[in-house]
Design the sequence.
């Protein structure tokens, strides 16, 4: 199966 | 204060319709360059990024940074009153409690005026890195919508593969498998039907169809959609609005468990 990644692991708070 | 008048008022309604099922409360950040919005969905899987540039409005005035904290369900209720050729004007003070929205009929015989209560929304802004995408596909937005909707009937996820042969959307579900492949296509007379695939290296990524189908609610904004992919980074789906104003969606990929 495949697991959904979170966007926060790619985009970080400014 | 903010004063922004939009002659293509349906753009506002289409933007709100496109994002209201993904995000509920968000700040419209106004400054002298235009009105921007950035919001993540509750599950932190998708992000909406909109920019309505000042040039899209006439007139446009905004002396300082103003955040309009809007509940999109409430804004939708106000926008119900908007009719096709109306001019819409947005007005707000520097530290506003409410947003004043006026609709004027093109014949100027009707003026509707609403005040929408605003809220304080503490929203983190995310830095989106500049990415040179390995594959950029521009295609008819209706085609993209149809592919996503059709494949969602079979599966939760779609694998998007871009190679020199084309772009392939494939899925595997309980009832079987499905795939749609598009190749580069040029129609000189009907350019909106073109499929343009620019590729620097092959890409293969898997995404949740639920989110992609949601992004396709932006289809009425533009007859073209741009899809940008690189291995192991979020997908970018972009609809141009008017001029260089845009509505973008980012979606985190699924990876092997």
Sequence:
């Amino acid at each position: 199966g495949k697991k959904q990644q979170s966007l926060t692991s790619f985009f970080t708070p400014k | 204060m903010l004063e922004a008048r939009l002659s293509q008022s349906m753009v506002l309604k289409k933007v709100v319709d496109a994002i209201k099922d993904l995000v509920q409360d968000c700040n419209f950040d106004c400054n002298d360059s235009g009105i921007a919005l950035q919001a993540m969905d509750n599950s932190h899987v998708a992000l909406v990024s909109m920019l309505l540039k000042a040039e899209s409005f006439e007139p446009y005035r905004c002396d300082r940074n103003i955040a309009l904290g809007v509940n999109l369900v409430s804004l939708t209720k106000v926008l119900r009153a908007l009719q096709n050729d109306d001019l819409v004007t947005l007005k707000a003070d520097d530290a506003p409690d409410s947003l004043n929205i006026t609709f004027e009929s093109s014949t100027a015989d009707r003026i509707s005026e609403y005040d929408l209560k605003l809220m304080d929304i503490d929203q983190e802004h995310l830095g989106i890195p500049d990415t040179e995408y390995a594959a950029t596909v521009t295609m008819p937005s209706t085609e993209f919508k149809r592919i996503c909707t059709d494949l969602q009937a079979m599966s939760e996820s779609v694998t998007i593969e871009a190679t020199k042969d084309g772009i392939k959307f494939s899925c595997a579900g309980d009832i079987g498998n499905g795939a749609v492949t598009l190749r580069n296509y040029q129609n000189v007379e009907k350019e909106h039907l073109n499929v343009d695939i620019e590729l620097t290296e092959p890409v293969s990524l898997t995404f949740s169809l639920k989110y992609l189908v949601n992004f396709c609610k932006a289809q009425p904004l533009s007859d073209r959609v741009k899809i940008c992919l690189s291995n192991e980074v979020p997908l970018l789906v972009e609809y141009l609005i008017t001029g260089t104003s845009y509505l973008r969606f980012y979606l985190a990929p699924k990876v092997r468990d």
About this structure: The longest strand of chain B covers residues 46-53.
